[in-house]
Amino acid sequence: MVESRWLVGCVTKPHHDAERRFAVLGVLLQALHLLFGVTAILGMYLTLGRVQSMQSPLWKNHCLQQLKTFWIGAILYTIASILGVWYGHWWAFIVAAMWVTYRILSSAVGIATRCPANHCF
Hints:
single chain
């Protein structure tokens, strides 16, 4: 169940629709990283520049999760590269991609249902 402090005044105000659209843009750019790696970097820079000015705690929460997903995913992909190149463990890329995909999907579900990022699954 979603805590009521997340819902008070943060999803019904019309000026928060722009913040919601921005959160959706960040998720879409991260989702496209599997096809074009540069989109995740672009999404991270856009989110990093906008997250401090967001007024809705709900959408700010989603943007912070996107930033965490980017950086932890970058670390996981780096470890997967090391394991793949030096030791031949290419399965590490699949594990990293599955984790990042899970985080992107949980964020997308949270945006669609208007619940906080880590309270959806």
